[in-house]
Automatic annotation (TrEMBL):
Its EC number is 3.2.1.131. The keyword Transmembrane does not apply. Residues 102-421 form the Glycosyl hydrolase family 67 catalytic domain. PANTHER family: ALPHA-GLUCURONIDASE A. It holds the Pfam family Glyco_hydro_67C. GO terms for molecular function: xylan alpha-1,2-glucuronosidase activity. Residues 422-643 form the Glycosyl hydrolase family 67 C-terminal domain. It comes from the Bacteria. Keywords: Glycosidase, Hydrolase. The gene is aguA_1. This is Xylan alpha-(1->2)-glucuronosidase.
Length: 647
């Protein structure tokens, strides 16, 4: 554990000490009962400055005033500094932000800020199973569970809570949405008492817990013979069980539900709608101010690949849009950012354009399931910035819905019991960026990446610039050597790492590219599957026409011949060859860039990132060769530049 603690304090991006900052003589003054915040502030400053001496020279005032619930302000004073907030939690956010800005090297006198989050709920979803394994986890095992029990180190949980609060997270769902018979029992004793103890550790940090519940809990936990949401006994079960939950954890945030999806039970199994299911559970938590996050990731995962009519990206909209306006106030529909599944490139889900009377959460995935699995470098901030700026209707960007229809921002976490939290330390940047962006969607990827580098690495200008450039270009690089132009998947089935062009082509998962010898892609226009019709008219037109469709999404929306001329005059096939050759080369350049950082970052960090970049290079070459060979074999057309393609 000593080693573990050392790594934590060494690498914890937020509260890391900075030798460049001088110890200060400072008094912290709080006129209220703010012991906890006071303590956080002291702790943070000590980590930053090494020590703080009590003196009258300089005073840090912590003040609760009439700002909004989570709003804070930071103001330099003549002989001190003032942090004010509308509530205890707001003050805590103010303290963390103050520390964060000091950690970037800013001097106190220049720190002016007034900030309030755009959405009320900023939530991390753990896909932790109670046996300790994390679904799509790439940073070790769960730090909540082991052997079907709660099993955690209190100090680590507090550190985690601090880490999350410092980036504005205020809700954590502790278990996998794929709930099994064991985790279904989290809402009942004896597990509930354990969960209440965990909730108490998070509480001082302004973080409320959620739990993923099993739609069939009435049968599994309650011993009923049905889970039909309109059955009186089922309604009573949810009410009684929720009363027990709230009795133990009065500030419990609510439930997350994955229903009728990937072999999970749901209302449709009983001939009921998604709204029937969500509202029954929502009614049970409503008296306690609880919420139900109801996922829209509903599609037929038993599709016959011969069936060209069923088009998976259309599924969520078909299930949920007609129900707009019928969900209870405390139901929040949780919608993945794209209509398929966290691919490198997808359009924004059409549900965001067309659910006008329903509260929504956008769900991102920080865990890099399809984007390199925390081996390959992939800065999600770059992708999220684009997604947030995407048009949803009449020139309105997605982020303009934050605080309107979109009331919550959620993400599947990339953390595990690896002591630096994310395995690959550079993947910490994604976690950091998520919290900051959920609070303020106007922040750019560049700002977020730069902030994270400044508070994480004590390195020189070359070091900072190199890491920034690596992160900023990483998304484009990964995209260029993997599945082209929004076609998606082409990954190894099940583990989703590495290339397998036809891996899902004849499967039941509904993710097909339908490549033939002269063309590739699914026609999703109004003349094809009709997917584009789920968007408002102007977007529909833009996506429908191959000339106006954003080129990077060409193969998401269109079936295209290999000899199609891209905007720069190259054929589609040549574009695919080029991007794969270039992507692999750029992956090599990433490794070379990192190699210039030896002795500029801690050796351990240097070695572990280097090892991952070496694996990334192998992966990129494998993608390059498999994809290029695949298309060469299909078409028999040579690369114009005569580079090596295998047969
Ligand atoms: C938790 C994808 C992943 C699954 C995940 C699912 C979901 O299909 O591969 O592991 O299950 O999404 O989001 O529910």
């Amino acid at each position: 554990m000593d080693h573990a603690r050392r790594i934590f304090s060494e690498y914890n991006a937020w509260l890391q000490s900075k030798s460049s900052l001088e110890p200060k003589a400072l008094r912290i003054k709080a006129g209220f009962d703010l012991d906890f915040i006071h303590q956080e502030c002291r702790l943070g400053l000590i980590r930053l400055w090494g020590e703080i001496q009590e003196s009258d020279e300089y005073t840090l005032h912590l003040k609760m005033n009439d700002l909004e619930h989570e709003e804070f302000s930071l103001t330099p004073l003549e002989n001190g500094f003032e942090i004010a907030g509308g509530s205890k939690n707001a003050l805590l956010y103010g303290v963390y932000r103050f520390l964060n800005r000091l950690a970037t090297g800013e001097s106190m006198e220049k720190i002016h800020e007034h900030s309030a989050p755009k959405v009320d709920y900023r939530i991390i979803n753990h896909w932790d199973n109670m046996d300790g394994h994390i679904e799509r986890g790439y940073a070790g095992n769960s730090f909540f569970f082991l052997n079907n029990k709660f099993d955690y180190d209190q100090e680590r949980i507090k550190n985690y809570a601090r880490l999350m609060a410092s980036i504005g997270i205020n809700g954590i769902c502790i278990n996998n949405v794929n709930v099994n018979k064991v985790s279904a029992g989290l809402i009942a004793e004896p597990l509930l008492t354990d969960m209440a103890e965990l909730a108490a550790l998070f509480r001082p940090f302004g973080i409320r817990l959620l739990v993923s519940v099993h739609f069939d809990a009435p049968m599994i936990v309650g011993g009923l013979t049905t889970s039909d949401p309109l059955d009186a006994g089922v309604k009573e079960f949810w009410k009684a069980q929720s009363a027990i939950v709230y009795d133990k954890i009065p500030d419990f945030l609510g439930y997350l539900v994955k229903a009728d999806s990937e072999f999970r039970g749901g209302p449709e199994a009983f001939g009921r709608t998604q709204a029937d299911g969500a509202n029954t559970i929502a009614a049970a938590v409503a008296p306690f101010g609880g919420l139900v996050f109801w996922r829209c990731f509903v599609y037929n995962c038993q599709q016959d690949w011969r069936d060209a009519q069923t088009d998976r990206p259309m599924a969520a909209y078909k299930h949920f849009q007609p129900l707009d306006g019928t969900f209870d106030q405390n139901v929040i529909l949780q919608i993945k950012n794209g209509p398929v599944d966290f691919q490198t490139r997808e359009p924004v889900s059409p549900l965001f354009s067309n659910l006008k009377n329903t509260r929504e959460a956008i769900e991102f995935q920080i865990a890099q399931e399809y984007t390199g699995q925390q081996i390959d470098l992939y800065s999600l901030a770059v992708q999220w910035e684009e997604i947030l700026a995407a048009e949803v209707d009449k020139g309105k960007q997605l982020k303009s819905l934050f605080g309107q229809e979109i009331v919550a921002v959620t993400a599947v976490t990339n953390t595990g019991n690896n002591m630096n939290w994310t395995g690959n330390i550079l993947a910490q940047c994604n976690l950091y960026a998520f919290g900051r962006m959920a609070w303020n969607p106007e922040l750019t990827a560049k700002e977020l990446i730069r902030e994270w580098i400044q508070i994480t690495f004590e390195t020189d200008a070359h070091g900072r610039q190199t890491i920034e450039e690596m992160l900023l270009t990483s998304r484009g690089i990964y995209e260029s050597y993997t599945a082209p132009l929004g076609i998606g998947f082409m990954v190894n089935p099940s583990n989703h790492y590495g290339p397998n062009v036809d891996g899902y082509e004849f499967s039941h998962w509904g993710t097909y590219h339908r490549a033939s010898s002269d063309a590739i892609g699914v026609d999703r226009t109004s003349k094809g599957t009709g997917f584009t019709l789920q968007y408002p008219e102007s977007l529909q037109r833009m996506y429908d026409h191959i000339e106006s469709c954003p080129e990077e999404l060409l193969l998401f929306f269109h079936r295209v011949r290999y000899d199609y001329k891209m905007k720069d005059g190259r054929t589609l096939l040549q574009y695919i060859y080029d991007s794969h050759f270039e992507g692999a080369q750029q992956a090599e350049a990433l490794l070379q860039s990192w190699e210039t950082l030896e002795n500029r970052v801690p050796q351990e960090v240097f070695n572990s990132v280097k090892a991952r970049l070496q694996l990334q290079l192998l992966n990129a070459r494998e993608w390059r060769d498999q994809v290029n060979t695949y298309f060469y074999r299909k078409t028999g057309i040579d690369d114009e530049k005569g580079r090596k393609i295998y047969m």
